[in-house]
Design a protein that fits this description.
This protein is of the alpha/beta class. 35% of the residues lie in helices and 11% in strands. The protein has helices at 66-79, 93-102, 123-137, 156-169, 182-191, 210-218, 238-247, 251-261, 273-281, 289-296; strands at 58-59, 83-85, 111-116, 144-147, 175-178, 196-202, 222-226, 265-266. The longest helix has 15 residues, at 123-137. Bound molecules: NADP nicotinamide-adenine-dinucleotide phosphate. NADP nicotinamide-adenine-dinucleotide phosphate is lined by residues 59-61, 85, 148, 178-179, 200, 226-232, 250, 252, 267-272, 275, 278-279, 305.
């Protein structure tokens, strides 16, 4: 995966397939009311396209109603999203695949990520269940395959050699990890023949994860923020309420713009068209230094996702 270094505001990878993509929609009326940059003004160098990971994706956890999930994915792709995130454990890979098939967007323009669940992380199970995932998704390859958690059947050498094999076979374009602590990322980099391109972790203004981000940057591993809206908690924070009111946008947009400007990819889960559109519009929002200072001052570190098997517990 090509990793793009920031040209002007902290992007590590590509924002999107908006630029130069005829399928991408960015109707000017969607941007009404935003006192920030116009989409047309976005510098193509700022958000290059092609095979890198778009910085805004669609999350799908708990989007388990098959029809609704397929429609969310279709609508997101037709809105301009080019990055879709799912996992074996979400029980929706088939519906996600259906949404991709329905959308008027070519498969090769979509950056599709899934994750191998913890019980499937023994070497042979990685190989067999990854193939099952591809079959459920209806695709010949995924753009990114994550180790979902370093837990249960995760054994670095065994697990990652299977990921490397899938990478070598071309079934998996990129290998990623999720919920890894810095030392586990370093260990995975040392062991895995394929590059570890991303670490997907919980990250939002209420859990800013500076140390983890610094460690990932040091090793050239992109950070992907899950629960980037803190599962709705961002709507209840005064600092974010004030920034949102100042720019005339939602707190969701503020959180997503903050992540993007920190160089972090975000994959908000949204089901209905309004939320999918609202999150997309965050790409047009630019925060100022005062906003960044205010968000940096938020002193909270409560996790939304904190199972007992997490490596930090
Ligand atoms: P999230 O994206 O922070 O929040 C999702 C919630 O926010 C949903 O209730 C959604 O409602 C609502 N929402 C979305 N956009 C909104 C908007 N513009 N205005 C108001 N409400 C809005 O939480 P998440 O689902 O935990 O995280 C996102 C994705 O990250 C997941 O779907 C999954 O793909 C991934 N994830 C990965 C892991 C991991 O272990 N790797 C863990 C958790 C999540 P609607 O659904 O009604 O739109």
């Amino acid at each position: 995966m090509r990793v793009h270094r920031p040209s002007r505001c902290g992007c590590i990878s590509s924002v999107c397939a908006i630029i130069g993509n005829p399928n991408a929609l960015w109707p000017s009326d969607q941007l009404g009311g935003m006192d920030s940059t116009d989409a047309d003004e976005i510098d193509p160098d700022f958000c290059p396209t092609d095979d890198s990971m778009p910085m805004l994706g669609l999350g799908t956890w708990e989007n388990t109603d098959a029809e609704q999930c397929a429609e969310s994915v279709r609508f997101a792709l037709e809105t301009g999203y080019r990055h879709i995130d799912t996992a074996q454990i979400y029980n929706n890979e088939e519906a996600v695949g259906e949404g991709i098939a329905r959308a008027d967007v070519d498969r090769e323009d979509v950056f599709l990520a899934t994750k191998i669940w913890t019980s499937n992380l023994a070497h042979d199970d990685v190989l067999s269940t990854a193939r099952e995932s591809l079959s459920r998704l209806g695709v010949g390859y995924v753009d990114l395959l994550y180790v979902h958690w370093p837990a249960e059947a995760y054994e670095p050498t065994e697990t990652l050699s299977a990921f490397s094999k899938l990478h070598e076979e071309g079934r998996v374009r990129n290998v990623g990890v999720s919920n890894f602590q810095p030392e586990q990322v370093v260990e995975a980099i040392d062991i895995c023949e394929a590059p570890i391109v991303a670490n997907q972790v919980e990250l939002h203004p209420l859990l800013q994860q500076e140390q983890l981000r610094e460690a990932c940057e040091q090793y050239d591993v992109s950070v992907v923020a899950y629960s980037p809206l803190a599962r709705g908690a961002v709507f209840e924070v005064d600092v974010l309420n004030e920034i949102a009111a100042k720019h005339g946008v939602s707190e969701a947009a503020v959180s997503l713009a903050w992540l993007r400007e920190q160089g972090v990819t975000a994959i908000p889960k949204a089901t209905g068209e309004d939320h999918i559109r609202d999150n997309w519009e965050s790409l047009a929002l630019e925060l100022d230094q005062e906003d960044h200072n205010a968000i940096a001052s938020i002193d909270r570190t409560k996790r939304e996702v904190d199972p007992s098997f997490a490596p930090w517990n």
